[in-house]
Amino acid sequence: MTNITAVLAADHRHGDQLFAAAAQAAEQCDWPACRQQFDAFLRTLKHHMEIEEQVLFPAFEQASGIRGGPTWVMRQEHQQMLALLDEIAAAIAARNAEDFRASAQSFAGLMTLHSTKEERVLYPMCDQVLADLSGEKLQELISQR
After folding, report:
1. What is the helix (H) or strand (E) element at residue 110, kind and residue range?
2. What pTM value is reported for the model?
């Protein structure tokens, strides 16, 4: 049996690879490839956020009784990330490598901090309090993308 931390951290790494591929394509000014990789990344990230916000966070809040703490912070950061991704999408549409690079750098910094907090704090807390939500169940949800 695998745990929540392992499954969701692996999904983070998958998303990181897709984003890195989009950034590499942007550096080469290969905008069709950039768009394709970015779209794949965006689908992956939004699906990941949906699993967290609709399944994991509510289950954690109910089991722990903690409603205004780490899950609130994660939801706020999700919104910040989505706003930065809108900027990146605009840079891709404009085929503007400089704007892409600037927005991507901001996004990558936020994403790294966010993922670190989830993987080192929130997910381990979830592993402790969520006996009914296994890593396998989350893996099934991830596989539905």
Report:
1. helix 97-117
2. 0.91
